[in-house]
């Protein structure tokens, strides 16, 4: 079954395709179908994910999967939060977002943080019962980037007990532990239960 991922992020597409491989789902990105991104102006990850999934469903009349996720840093009052991909401004690169985060955290040493993910699956734009799965991955922020895997804030996200950043973990290991991995496992369970 073809399902459209409401994202043009190739890193998210690769991760989610691997994590959801156990179900019959041919996941394609919205950019492959020429769909512009939806406005992300809600106050929560869940609301943004619903809006993105609904936008895609309306555009192509296919089921949609939306991921809205980001880094939440309590000492920054939850920032970058829902603006994680745009923390340094619209169209900012991962390097620019990470530089802004390091500037904002200059006075802190190993601040706590967590990644949060909301996954929403809609069968159609008017689906009254969307599947909603969430996950959180707690850790700390390190000033020096480490690792060559992952994307986004992964090089600065230190995983508790492992003394490695998310970017130092092989993709399979990260997928088992991460916020997106947790949400994907929940979603897989829900998809298998739904008739």
Q: What would you say this structure looks like, in words?
A:
- This protein has one domain (2-193): Maf protein.
- Helix content is 30%, strand content 23%.
- The protein has helices spanning 10-19, 45-60, 94-104, 171-177, 179-193, and strands spanning 2-5, 26-29, 64-72, 112-122, 131-141, 157-159, 164-165.
- It has a 7-stranded mixed β-sheet with strand order 2-1-3-4-5-6-7.
- The longest helix has 16 residues, at 45-60.
- The protein is globular and about 50 Å long.
- The two termini are 14 Å apart.
- The relative contact order is 0.16.
- The model has no long low-confidence stretch (mean pLDDT 93).
Q: How are helices and strands ordered from N to C?
A: EHEHEHEEEEHH
Tally of distinct domains: 1
Secondary structure tally, helices: 5
Q: What percent of residues are in strands?
A: 15-25%
- Inertia-based shape: globular
Give the strand tally.
Answer: 7
Biggest sheet, in brief? 7 strands, mixed
SSE-based structural type: alpha/beta
CATH class: Alpha Beta
CATH architecture call: Alpha-Beta Complex
Radius of gyration: 16 Å
What is the share of helical residues? 25-40%
Find the CATH topology.
Maf protein
Spell out the key features of this protein.
195 residues, alpha/beta, 7 strands, single chain, Maf protein, 5 helices, seven-stranded mixed β-sheet
């Amino acid at each position: 079954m073809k399902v459209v991922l409401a994202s043009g992020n190739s890193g998210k597409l690769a991760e989610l395709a691997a994590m959801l491989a156990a179900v019959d789902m041919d996941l394609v990105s919205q950019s492959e179908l020429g769909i512009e991104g939806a406005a992300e102006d809600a106050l929560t990850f869940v609301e943004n994910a619903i809006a993105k999934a609904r936008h895609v469903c309306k555009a192509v009349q296919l089921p949609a999967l939306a991921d809205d996720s980001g880094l939440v840093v309590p000492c920054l009052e939850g920032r970058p939060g829902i603006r994680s991909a745009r923390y340094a401004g619209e169209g900012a690169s991962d390097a620019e977002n990470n530089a802004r985060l390091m500037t904002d955290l200059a006075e802190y040493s190993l601040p706590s943080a967590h990644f949060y993910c909301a996954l929403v699956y809609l069968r159609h734009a008017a689906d009254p019962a969307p599947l909603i799965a969430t996950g959180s991955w707690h850790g700390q922020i390190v000033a020096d980037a480490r690792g060559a895997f992952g994307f986004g804030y992964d090089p600065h996200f230190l995983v508790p007990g492992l003394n490695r950043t998310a970017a130092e973990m092989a993709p399979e290991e990260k997928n088992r532990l991460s916020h997106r991995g947790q949400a994907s496992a929940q979603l897989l369970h829900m998809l298998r239960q739904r008739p």
